[in-house]
Amino acid sequence: MGKGYRDGDAPWRFSGRALYQLNLVKSSEARKHVPADLKLVELFGYTLGGVYLARYEDSPAGTFDEMVALGGLVWNPPTSCAWAARVFVNDERARAHGVKTCGLPSALARFDDDDEKSDAETRRDGWWKNVKPLSVFAKARAFVLDGKNKKRFMSRSETVRLRDGDTGAEVCALALPGAGAGPLGPRINLKLPSFSGRTSACPDLLKYSLDMRANVRLSGPILAETETEATTSAAQANAVPPRKQNGFWAPTGDVRFPPAAALASAASLSLAQSPAVTDAGAEKEVPEKSASGTPRPPADAELAAILRGKPLLCIAFDAMEMDVGAPTAVAAR
């Protein structure tokens, strides 16, 4: 366990569980990540992207978590493969291996769940911690023992937040489906070859094999939100709407100016919104920089466009064993 990524040890084995969701992604967004000389499999302006979220219990790097945002489906005869637009891991050895050996855009991130924020009357039945939902018999028994306190048995989905490994800034939030309620699904074998490369560390186009054995089942979708959306929704939830009162008096929260004060207020408002004043008083935002010194945009709109694609299908891989072969250089056709 955690013996490291040695070239002679390939294929490297990973075991754990994963969620794999296919999304419809706009071709214009996918093109921002796929090399220009590679063909994109598309129809009516859309291609197949998605999200891959894994919790590895054993790997050459030991135990770690991974999230891959799949930008689109690439065609390089005779194979079509998904192209990774973003890769986030919470282990430095896994990140270094992805960048230097596999030619992946791997970055360090923290995977924080919101379990500590939940109240005592809420139960999480989620995939992240693999908490199985209560059976009908267990719910009935708990209801009888605790009386009519139904709130104790309310459940909600888990939310996992990815935070930048350098700054701690939130990258995205993923609302995860529930864990499997019944026995394991059928066990299947899958071969999923993948393309990578075209990076500064690995400029060649690379291809590597991926052989998977897992019990599969259909799952609920992974729903994503950006930091801006999370902040907005939280502010809207905490906002207290003003009370409405009928009659002569103004509603609570409204301010009525005398005519002279209203004219003065309108004049100052129009002056403040004029282009000259706005441009002169505005302060330029300086992009935040990571520990490596590279500028980081305030929000990753390109990542959001992939994660917020239309979900088509989400598959859960349980008791997963995955063998990843060493990448080899291939020619673009």
UniProtKB/TrEMBL annotation:
Region feature (Disordered): 276-299
Coiled-coil portions: none
Superkingdom in the source lineage: Eukaryota
InterPro entries found in the cross-reference section: ADC_dom_sf (IPR023375), NDX1-like (IPR039343)
The protein, known as: Protein NEOXANTHIN-DEFICIENT 1
